[in-house]
Structure formats: C-alpha cells, structure tokens
User: Which sequence fits this backbone?
C-alpha cells in the first residue's frame, strides 16, 4: 500500500432505509424533507434501501415526485447514481437499492438474492473511481430478508460475490439493512471475507437502529475491508425518527 496514514483519502458514507419515501405506517409522503436531511449529512456516498424507481409516485401522496426517487434525492449533489430493482408491483411500480456517489461509478451490477416466497432482495455492487486513489473502491448496498434461513443464504451469496468480484487489495464498503437482529452476520463476514463492522470495531457492539423512535434492534450496518473508520455515528433522532423507521448510520472511511 503506497498511501501513508498521514495522506489517507477520507470519504463519508451514509446508509438509510427510506421506506419508499413515506413515514411509518405510510401516513405521509415526506421525500422532499428526506432529501433535505440527507443533503445536510454531506456524505460522499449514500446507500439507500427501499427506494422507488420508475413510476415512484404513490396513490396516497398529496404531492407526487415524477422522476425515480433516487434521481430526486441525488439532484445536483450526487452526480453519479445506480439503482437495482428488487420488487415489482402489479401496476408497474418498483423499488430496490440505490447508491448515490460524488465519485464516478465506473461499473455496477445488481444481484438478485431473493429466496422462494414473496420477499424480493438484492445486492447492488458499484465500483467507484476516487481521485487520488490508485485502486478502485467497491461498495455493496444490501437489503436482506426477514427470515433467518433466507438471511443465511443471502450472506453466503454476499461472500461468494465478494470473492468473485472484489480484488483482494481493493477497499470495500458493504452497508445497508441486514435485518440481522440476532447479530449472526459479524462473525461470518469477518471469517469468510475479512469484513469488519465499524460500530463493533469502534465501540464493541453494533448500533441500534430500529425502530427509529426507540431503537432496540441492530438491523443496519456498515462493514469495511482494506480501509479504516473514524467515529461512526447513528444520526440524531430529530429529524430522522420522523423521516424513516430506521435510524441512519454514517462514518468517515479512510482509504
């Protein structure tokens, strides 16, 4: 590795499940407020789960957003974005994972990791070209299933994907909604592909993120490999508990 710690390149990452742009129980469409809050964080790379794609407007919405929600959120701040469609509805609406980046996305691919049943899940893998860094940065946006058996299969697929698509020396950030309330992913991901969870590494335990108003479960995660992390944080309850049922996470990543 040629970069010294003193000259490490830093980028801020954020992950949030945006619940299709609605408050808890779908009471109110709050995507414009959500965009303002995401912008204030100032992250270089944002991992989004449950983001609406084409035909994103909703019949309950008092004001609609015509473009895909990830384009609306990225507008003017994140010039690069990628979307992976997971769930398609009968009327043509669909949602999935998205990555918004201030750095060029030179390649991306969405992997369908759905297991038998109605749940549709995906892993969105993007390759970022960060100025001043000689090796491309790999990021994977994750949304795993609710069933334990499904999550175990999906974690194995994630490990297989990392082994097959991410060079051993490349910085890697894996973030999103793991639904891993039993905290089984930490040991498996570190043992199989060398990924460390940033809150576990910094504070000894994963962050509690769900439900956002009174977080009890550690569902959302940020894992890294070939990178170090400075002060990972759970974003403040105000305004976030009003904007999502998951508390967002953010961290400064040093390459």
Assistant:
């Amino acid at each position: 590795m040629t970069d010294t710690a003193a000259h490490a390149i830093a980028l801020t990452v954020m992950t949030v499940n945006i619940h299709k742009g609605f408050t808890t129980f779908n009471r109110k469409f709050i995507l414009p407020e959500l965009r303002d809050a995401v912008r204030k964080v100032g992250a270089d790379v944002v991992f989004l789960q449950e983001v609406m794609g084409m035909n994103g407007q909703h019949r309950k919405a008092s004001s609609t957003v015509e473009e895909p929600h990830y384009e609306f959120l990225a507008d003017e701040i994140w010039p690069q974005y990628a979307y992976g469609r997971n769930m398609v509805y009968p009327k043509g609406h669909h949602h999935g994972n998205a990555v918004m980046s201030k750095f060029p996305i030179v390649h991306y691919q969405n992997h369908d990791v759905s297991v038998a049943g109605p749940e549709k899940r995906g892993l969105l893998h993007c390759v970022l070209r960060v100025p001043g860094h000689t090796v491309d940065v790999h990021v994977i946006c994750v949304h795993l299933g609710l069933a334990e058996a499904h999550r175990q299969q999906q974690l194995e697929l994630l490990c297989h994907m990392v082994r097959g698509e991410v060079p051993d020396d490349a910085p890697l950030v894996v973030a999103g909604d793991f639904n891993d309330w039993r905290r089984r992913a930490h040991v498996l991901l570190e043992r199989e592909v060398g990924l460390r969870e940033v809150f576990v590494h910094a504070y000894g335990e994963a962050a509690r993120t769900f439900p956002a108003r009174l977080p009890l479960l550690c569902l959302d995660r940020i894992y890294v490999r070939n990178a170090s992390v400075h002060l990972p944080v759970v974003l403040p309850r105000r305004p976030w508990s009003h904007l999502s049922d998951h508390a967002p996470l953010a961290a400064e990543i040093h390459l």
